[in-house]
Amino acid sequence: MNKEALFADETEDYRIPSEPDEGQEVCLRFRTLKGEADHVFFVWINKGTEAPMSVQSSDSMFDYYEYRITVSQEPEYYCFRVEGSGEQYFYNRLGVVENVEPQYAFRITPGFHTPEWAKGAVMYQIFVDRFCRGEQFNDVESGEYIYIGRPISKVGDWKKYPELMDVGCFYGGDLQGVWDKLDYLQYLGVEVIYFNPLFVSPSNHKYDCQDYDHIDPHYGVIVKDGGKRAVESGMDNSQATRYVLRSTDKVNLEASDAFFARMVQEIHKRGMRVIIDGVFNHCGSFNKWLDRERIYEKSGQYPPGAYVSKDSPYRNFFKFKEDQWPYNGTYDGWWGHDTLPKLNYEESPELYQYILNVARKWVSPPYCVDGWRLDVAADLGRTSEFNHQFWRDFRKAVKSANPEALILAEHYGDPSDWLEGDQWDTVMNYDAFMEPVSWFFTGMEKHSDWYSEEWYGNGARFFEAMARNMARMQTPSLFTAMNELSNHDHSRFLTRTNHVVGRLANKGSRVAEEGVDHAVFREAVLVQMTWPGAPTIYYGDEAGVCGWTDPDNRRTYPWGDEDVELVDYHSYLTMYHKKLVSLKKGSLKPLLWGEHYLAYGRMHGQERCIIVVNNDRDDKDLQVPVWQLGIPDGTVLKRLILTNGYGHNVGRVDYVCKDGRISLDMEAVSGVLLACRIKKEGEPDEAAEIYV
Question: Domain 128-227+241-284+334-577 adopts which CATH fold?
Fold first, then answer.
């Protein structure tokens, strides 16, 4: 039996409808080589039964078997069994296997829908302080306040590399700067902007929230100003009256919120969406509920914080180890950090409800953001049971306010317990994208902390790792997963191409950009833009920004010094990604792999895309078996883009399928994207042309 002909998945070509509700009838399809299978069975794992499937349609190459079920209230688990030529195989999310393997079964979760707009959406992550400086009046001033024992500093040179102790260094990027660059983001093909945290916070990364209710005026609008800086007041934040006024006065907070609402409205007018960062596991020591810095105590406009007073209305928001008021510093910190107080949900129904209200507020008018990215989401709470219950309630709160909002979590490891349809929609896709791509193309771990010769260029391991990790996610989660090459927590992918193990502390800034390979980076971007999921560009990656892991990965965007060729390359790929439905919602089919090369296809309806990369230092003549995508002999495939050691080329080149294959002479360190349309019987030859 030809195992490569066997195929099924959870896309809308093979499960109709692909995301059914309870009580709906679902048509399940399975593909075999035409006339080859003796029997195909639907295996209903829940019930321990199986039923014969029947051929309902055929083309020149394949038979398509179908079976219909009515979805019950509970999840449905299934696979397929095929008999032919004296052989028997099962087929699940890993493909052809010898046994049922329930952990890799196809799954239907009734009523689990992820937003259509997010499926395959091109996302762009912005670390606001380093993207673009739009205004000057809202800049953080040097010495304005004290952060982790040091006066914060304003960096005057936009091109200066981050320091090792960078969290208190501000370059002046703000929301006006983002607004000013919306034309650029549209040119780049961005469909969704993901912002690192925007709420009031003393750090440049803002993962230590000071006030969940308001946008930071240093990013937004400072209407009311004055007072003294901490360095003028004895290095005491309680006397840093300028920061107190800027960050706590309602006039500034409300003006910044209103500015953000207007900006989101403008982004929506341009057809783009907005995701914001929610850091709900912990807050910051500056937070108004704790007020360790006594900022709110001095403002006269807020109730006392739990650090300040035993009678604070927020006392149970935190877990204190001792009774030492006033100014009780014995609260529980996340991983022991007293600058990151862990929020005490289990003992505070008031906190629980407060955060659910925050979740609703920002996805509702007048802000209408389109989703949440959840920081260290698996850490929230003190037990697994509580964590899951919180995210169930969080989902209900968000979806009741905005049913089309996306809930996307940061998570390392198996996310399946949270992706059952009642908690998160999806995740930042480390295991089923960033790591396998990094290992294959660079041999480097995502922090640049070690190098693996064993994983480098191993095509078989790449597809195996991808398949097993993708199988942990249902397809609605997979298509909305954030596929990044770099982000604010890991080294820049371009830096990883130099194969140097290191960090800022032991290598210095310059080494991160020495010996990098733009051709390898372009290959990885080609895979990013053609793999299932939401390709997410970390600001500046498209312009050639390098950097070790945090804080060096937070270099400024090099306005005026961009790598124009790289930006242009990204814009072409995002265009193809958006126009070719197969790249957004199509099936994935591995076709060919070996030492330093990969080929795979995407299928949707009559549309086919083929992606081939050769990461070897030598040229390769590859025979790609496109018959596995149902492409008949004589079909003309158009090359849409080529990347090689010299750059990229968008000139159209024809390749003709012969004997089920296309022959590609792949240059060293190169990649191609090809596309075609399968002609239906009776259609004219020109119907097979692909127009992009």
Answer: TIM Barrel (3.20.20)
